[in-house]
Write a structure and sequence with these properties.
Blueprint (H helix, E strand, L loop, with lengths): L2 H7 L1 H16 L1 H5 L2 H21 L3 H16 L4 H22 L2 H47 L4 H14 L3 E6 L2 E5 L1 H7 L3 H4 L10 H15 L7 E7 L5 E13 L2 E10 L1 H47 L4 H28 L7 E3 L1 H11 L1 H6 L3 E5 L7 E3 L1 H18 L5 E9 L5 E8 L27 H11 L3 E6 L5 E8 L5
Helix pairs in contact: 2-4, 2-6, 4-5, 5-7, 6-7, 7-8, 7-12, 12-13, 14-16, 16-17
Length: 505
């Protein structure tokens, strides 16, 4: 089915779900909007995206951004709320694409969807920000004129000014002589302080160390009336010590008869994360396409070589070193086939064939498959199974693949007479699930590597692609589960995955 037909076929269902999720997941502001209004805005957003995805026509999405920016700004919505709303379009369409499309068509559709969302969010953010800035700066300029012309009316003007600034969603501050002399509640919240703690605090204490020199230089240039960036990104310092990505829009003003810097402070964590996810998805899609092509090109010649070696071993009498060399060649080809399998698993979408399965039997089957490797190193296997675990709806082949991958990792790093422990148990704590634990007494893993062990292509070993644990995580999460890997005292690793307890009927 073509992308155009898919978008037409699922249009009404997606829009209905779009409205439902806006009212229940995004924010209280959306939940309070009338259903008919959200139906109109969601339909317009979907149809504008349709023209981008099918006709590469951005004119309708541009019109929609201009309209919705003004509409949501006047409705008191924050930038992140509307960005989240746009993100829902991708969340709803991706499963449909995976269901209806395959191969290159799926990759192209996902790429186009990411491109459309990146364009939409970037365009909307810039336009929304410009409207917001105009609103604040217009008032600030008006305030300066009032201070110069009507000193006697300062109290009234300041009252109106504070009312407006307190009502905006972004932080607003005034930095005079290097000290915060005015701030709205949003600015206080962004830094984790109460208003009485912020007023009088040196602005340098609100800047993360890695951004301090940069921000200080800009401040000094601005106060000396030298050319300086008015819009810049830096890392603010939260009260709890965190360094958080932030954007400031600042201007030199007169405040109570003395020059100061007034600025709008905006948290951009969500925007940076959205951009990172878009870049990462595009990068992985490209790598996946290249990986699939290479794996298919390499796998067929390898299979042919392996088959011919096996025929030679049967038909020709090799002995001594010659036979050993042929066996090494066969083993290495098998290893290469495993690597190619990991690459293909990484590249292709994961589909599950769920059937009633005993997790304990699956583990026993996996141990039988790697039994030869276990006996070669005389590894001791310790089983601790819960007998009360019911049959679960699982994809047996995929779960076996994940468990075997973890077992092979342990076998590879263990010395002779090592030990592997495997256990299962049922956890009933409101969110019922089954835990499978695999541990060994091998050399373990460096603490600095722990955050990256499930990242694609991360590898601390001399051999392998770094895709094994990534594919394990992919399989377990496709079953609705979670995975973790932690050091085991005094040495070794402790691998744990949990799967929700969905019993087979």
């Amino acid at each position: 089915m073509k992308l155009k037909d898919i978008l037409i076929k699922y249009r009404d269902d997606v829009i209905q779900e779009y409205v439902k999720r806006l009212q229940s997941e995004v924010s209280s502001r959306y939940s309070k909007r009338p259903y008919d209004e959200l139906l109109i805005t969601c339909s317009a957003a979907y149809d504008a995206s349709y023209f981008v995805l099918v006709h590469n026509d951005f004119s309708k999405i541009n019109c929609h951004i201009g309209w919705i920016s003004n509409y949501r700004l006047h409705g008191g919505f924050s930038l992140s709320e509307v960005q989240h709303a746009y993100e829902l379009n991708r969340i709803l369409l991706l499963p449909i694409f995976v269901k209806e499309l395959k191969g290159v068509a799926l990759i192209n559709a996902v790429h186009k969807l990411n491109e459309c969302l990146f364009y939409t969010i970037t365009k909307f953010s810039d336009y929304f920000q410009s409207l917001h800035e105009k609103q604040i700066m217009a008032y600030t300029q008006n305030l300066e004129g009032e201070v110069e012309k009507r000193t006697k009316e300062l109290a009234e003007s300041e009252s109106k000014y504070r009312l407006l600034v307190e009502g905006i969603n972004d932080g607003y501050f005034v930095n005079q002589r290097g000290v915060i002399v005015f701030a709205n509640q949003a600015y206080c919240d962004l830094h984790g302080y109460a208003l009485q703690e912020i007023i009088g605090k040196p602005y340098t204490e609100l800047i993360a160390p890695k951004s301090l020199n940069f921000v200080q230089r800009l401040y000094e240039q601005r106060m000396e009336e030298k050319e300086s960036d008015e819009l810049y990104m830096y890392f603010r310092r939260h009260k709890d010590g965190r360094a958080i990505p932030t954007e400031n829009k600042v201007k030199r003003i007169l405040y109570e008869g003395e020059y100061a810097v007034a600025g709008i402070c905006r948290d951009i964590t969500e925007r940076i994360e959205a951009e990172r996810r878009i870049r990462e998805s595009e990068r992985l899609a490209h790598i996946g396409k290249l990986t699939t092509s290479l794996a298919h090109e390499i796998r067929n010649p390898l299979s042919s070589i392996k088959m011919n070696i096996q025929i030679l071993l049967k038909n020709i009498e090799f002995d001594g070193n010659d036979k050993r060399r042929m066996e090494i060649m066969t083993n290495e080809i098998t290893r290469l086939e495993r690597i190619l399998g990991e690459m293909l698993d990484f590249a292709k979408p994961l589909t599950l064939d769920l059937k009633p399965v005993s997790i304990n039997r699956v583990i026993d089957s996996c141990l039988e498959i790697v039994d030869v490797r276990i006996k070669e190193k005389n590894i001791d296997i310790i089983r601790r199974y819960s007998k009360e675990i019911p049959f679960l709806l699982l994809d047996k082949d995929k779960i076996e693949q994940a468990i075997i991958n973890v077992l092979l990792n342990s076998i590879e790093v263990l010395d002779n007479d090592g030990r592997i422990g495997v256990s299962t148990r049922q956890v009933m704590d409101g969110n019922n699930f089954v835990k499978v634990e695999i541990s060994d007494n091998g050399p373990g893993i460096r603490e600095e590597d722990l955050p990256f062990v499930f990242n694609p292509f991360f590898n601390s070993k001399k051999k392998g692609t770094g895709l094994g644990l990534f594919n394990v995580k992919k399989i377990i999460e496709a079953h609705g589960g979670t995975v973790s890997l932690t050091p085991r005292k005094p040495h070794g690793i402790h691998f744990l995955f949990s799967i929700p307890l969905t019993e087979a009927k």
